[in-house]
Write a structure and sequence with these properties.
This protein is an alpha/beta fold. It has 25 helices and 30 strands. It binds flavin-adenine dinucleotide and flavin mononucleotide.
């Protein structure tokens, strides 16, 4: 085969040498516009796994690379005058130039033709080629030429960064955060040879502009950064080797995803590789790894399908299919990490204490969880857990094992919760006339014995016509109130759990069948007239609601107030107002369901006017020592609907009205929604609201393990974790998860005590080989 690699970066060079090594009869040329042994950039970091992969692929170059490595294990954070360090992270640094020189030399050894100082205009410059590798970097000319096939989607990210080197040697991957009068700057610093380190400085666009850095040339930018990071640089100057960049040299990162990676130009197959195909932000330092992995995979595919030109089509197809999965995983992690650095100033840096800030930074990609941190550095993690527990008011002696974050108490107003787990409200459709019956007592009683600190009953209606279905709970008469009193006494008697009521009005989603008879489907008979913010049905066959009048607003508000009074008298500990999921109050908040032309529609203030009025009326009668939360749909997941930006605005309004906590759910507002599900998929909403609005937050949705809950609470992404479906499968979810992670600190109901020892011993036995 005749192969041409356009671009002699890590991708092009490595693919060329791997192919030549496997099949010396290939005719391979690498075309590079720069001079031989000349390149931009400083050092790159790898993880230990990359080293294993390249050792298998080409032991010769891997040995040379290994000689040039600088290995270190620690991450250090410099923040608000503190210095914190954790170990066990396994990084390797190498100079970009050094790496490329090794690959170039290896190419020469293997008889790969290297053509330097040649600028390729197009793949058609190589009419004899069978295969053209577009390894020409993020600004790939070849990719742009066939943009219709490759469908590149480039997002220019908002932060600015500049890439320096310095002769100071750092013995840890160091992150240095500095606040100026205009905002935060962060430096990502890592050593890549005996005496040189990469020093990337990053900030937001607004801070960049406020300092006038857009008008600075490179020398002025260096002077600025040297002054800002002087305590860390210790007199070492910063150096640039990007003199080829004109102007300020502060860049924006381009996040790139391509719809396809290969194309047939009529004569040759053209395939994207490395940064030309996808980028991963330097926040997790994986761009070079992806480039090398691409090269390894494509070479492997030729081993599979054969090294003749007739195999190219099949090899390229299989390469793309296989690599897409690994690339997407790294890009997701890199995106999370990148976004963390984009919001760090306004969201975390000003308010968080250094210990929690460090934890948040270490888990920024959401690929590293609490238990991963324990594996890497158990001593550091235990120290952090001790700090976290003490901060939560738990007396832990030095040396004593602290509770994991999810098992620390949390106080809000006069209520102390024993831990951070709550049973999320879940409609059971099992009531008659809105009354609590034996089912609810058994169902909620079991969950109250299961270790969660807060047990919510389902959405409860303040009037018969506020119900979703005829099977929903209500709280509008004395008999219902007596049921709640019985429930509260039961919950309080069997363990440490507190009881929550979620008051809600179904709005346009009311008068529907029990879930198992057709969720959201209108009742065939016995329905009642519906009201909503606007006269818009939920489904095409739903009853059309009437637009709520002011008189109806008064009636509904008064019914909520009466129900709240009854709940307080019954001994309920926590009141949540349901303003999510497309029900009545949600229909005011979302522009998709609120088309009103009066003062209750239009702007955020108008859309929130009635929900806030109702909330304030509840807060006025709900005992001042008991907490209140509001459940919001933080994302409508469809065009024209509310987004997390809107949710933040509403969260601030409810906070000002006296809400202690925002329960951060999403969706169910419109049938056109396209939610992006996944592990912890709604947690970013809680994170944002908690840390930008400065209000308590509940994370909910696909939180299914102790490790998830510990990571969320420890990083300050939420104060509580609401667990719904896992609690249907396992009433004692908290007890079981605590035991599973070796922290059996949750009290069992006394009558069950005889089972405890056996249960814990079984877990200890099952875990023993893993730990050994
Ligand atoms: C600030 C910063 C820090 C980074 N840190 C890390 C890190 O720590 N770890 C890590 O793994 N990655 C890191 N990266 C990413 C890394 O540099 C890239 O992901 C990696 O170099 C991609 O390799 P590549 O071969 O695909 O592209 P490149 O390395 O960009 O190589 C492309 C080559 O093609 C040449 N070329 C382009 N067009 C033409 C043409 N028309 N004709 C001839 N030649 C052409 C270019 O001169 C260049 O040499 C970082 C990137 C940045 C911006
Ligand atoms: C059967 C069922 C009923 C639900 N009923 C309610 C409800 O009454 N009020 C509410 O706010 N959310 C309700 N939800 C949503 C849950 O509280 C929770 O937000 C959602 O299930 C995601 O959490 P999970 O992934 O832990 O299940 C219900 C969910 C389920 C599965």
């Amino acid at each position: 085969m005749r192969i041409v690699c356009i671009g002699g970066g890590p991708a092009g060079l490595y693919f060329a040498l791997l192919m030549k090594r496997r099949h010396p009869r290939h005719d391979i040329t690498v075309v590079e516009r720069n001079r031989a042994y000349d390149t931009f950039g400083w050092g790159v970091v790898f993880s230990d796994q990359v080293v294993e992969a390249i050792s298998r692929a080409d032991p010769e170059s891997a040995a040379d690379i290994a000689d040039a490595f600088n290995h270190w294990d620690d991450i250090e954070l410099l923040f608000k005058g503190t210095k914190q360090r954790t170990a066990g992270h396994g990084f390797i640094g190498i100079g970009r130039k050094r790496l490329l020189n090794i690959l170039q030399r290896r190419c020469e050894e293997l008889d790969v033709r290297l053509e330097f100082e040649r600028e390729a205009d197009s793949d058609l410059d190589f009419p004899d080629a069978d295969l053209v590798i577009a390894s020409d970097g993020v600004n790939s000319r070849i990719r742009e030429r066939y943009a219709e096939t490759f469908q590149p989607d480039i997002v220019v990210r908002p932060n600015r960064y500049i890439w320096f080197g310095t002769r100071k040697s750092f013995d840890a991957f160091t992150f240095d955060f500095r606040r100026t009068e205009h905002g935060w700057f962060q430096a990502h610093i890592y050593k890549f040879d005996a005496d040189t380190s990469t020093f990337i400085v990053e900030t937001t666009e607004s801070t960049f502009l406020a300092h006038g850095l857009d008008k600075y040339d490179q020398a002025q930018s260096i002077a600025f950064a040297e002054k800002l990071f002087a305590p860390t640089l210790d007199g070492a100057p910063l150096m640039t080797n990007s003199r080829h960049l004109r102007g300020s040299a502060w860049l924006n990162f381009n996040h790139l995803v391509c719809g396809r990676w290969s194309h047939f130009n009529g004569r040759a197959h053209v395939v994207l590789m490395g940064d030309a195909a996808h980028t991963a932000h330097f926040a997790i330092g994986s761009g070079t790894k992806l480039a090398l992995d691409d090269a390894i995979e494509l070479a492997h595919q030729f081993d599979r399908f054969g090294h003749g030109a007739e195999s190219i089509g099949a090899a390229l197809q299989s390469y793309e299919q296989t690599r897409r999965i690994g690339v997407a995983r790294v890009q997701n992690a890199a995106r999370n990490a990148m976004e963390w650095f984009e919001v760090v100033g306004r969201r975390y840096a000003d308010t968080m204490e250094p210990e929690q800030f460090f934890y948040s930074m270490l888990t920024r990609s959401q690929r590293i969880s609490h238990e991963n941190l324990r594996q890497r550095d158990p001593v550091w993690l235990e120290g952090f857990e001790r700090w976290f527990a003490r901060r939560a008011g738990v007396a832990v002696d030095d040396g004593a094992k602290p509770p994991p974050p999810m098992l620390t108490p949390w106080r809000v107003r006069g209520l102390e919760l024993a831990n951070r787990i709550m049973v999320s409200p879940m409609a059971m459709y099992s009531a008659r006339d809105g009354l609590i019956n034996d089912f609810h007592i058994a169902h909620l009683g079991a969950r109250a014995m299961g270790g969660a600190a807060l047990v919510f009953a389902e959405m409860t209606a303040p009037s018969p016509e506020a119900r979703i279905t005829p099977g929903c709970l209500g709280l509008w008469n004395d008999e219902q109130q007596a049921g709640w009193k019985r429930l509260a006494e039961l919950v309080h008697a069997v363990g440490h759990a507190k009881l929550g009521v979620q008051l809600g009005h179904a709005g346009r989603k009311g008068a529907t069948r029990l879930a198992w008879d057709g969720i959201d489907q209108p009742l065939d008979s016995g329905g009642w007239p519906l009201i909503s913010a606007s006269s818009l049905p939920y489904l095409p066959n739903s009853q059309v609601p009437r637009e709520m009048t002011r008189a109806q607003m008064d009636d509904v508000r008064d019914a909520f107030v009466a129900a709240a009074r009854r709940a307080a008298e019954a001994g309920v500990d926590w009141l949540e107002l349901h303003a999510a999921h497309g029900y009545l109050l949600s229909s005011f908040l979302s522009p998709l369901t609120n088309a009103r032309a009066d003062e209750y529609g239009g702007s955020h203030g108008n859309r929130a006017r009635y929900p806030l009025e109702l909330f304030r009326a509840l807060r006025a009668v709900w005992p001042s020592d008991r907490p209140m939360s509001v459940r919001l749909s933080c994302h409508d997941w469809t065009e024209g609907g509310n987004t997390p930006d809107d949710a933040l605005i509403f969260a601030r309004m409810f906070k000002d009205a006296g809400a202690d906590v925002i329960d951060c759910s999403s969706g169910q507002v419109s049938k056109a929604e396209r939610p992006v599900y996944g592990r912890l998929f709604q947690t970013p909403f809680a994170d944002r609201i908690r840390n930008e609005a400065g209000v308590g937050a509940i994370a909910v949705g696909a939180i299914s393990e102790a490790d998830h809950a510990n990571s969320i609470v420890a990083a300050g992404r939420a104060d509580l974790c609401a667990i719904a479906r896992p609690h249907l499968a396992d009433p004692a979810w908290t007890i079981h998860e605590a035991t599973r992670i070796g922290a059996p600190l949750v009290p069992w109901p006394r009558p069950y005590a005889s089972a405890r020892g056996q249960y814990e011993a079984a877990f200890a036995r099952a875990a023993a080989p893993e730990r050994a």
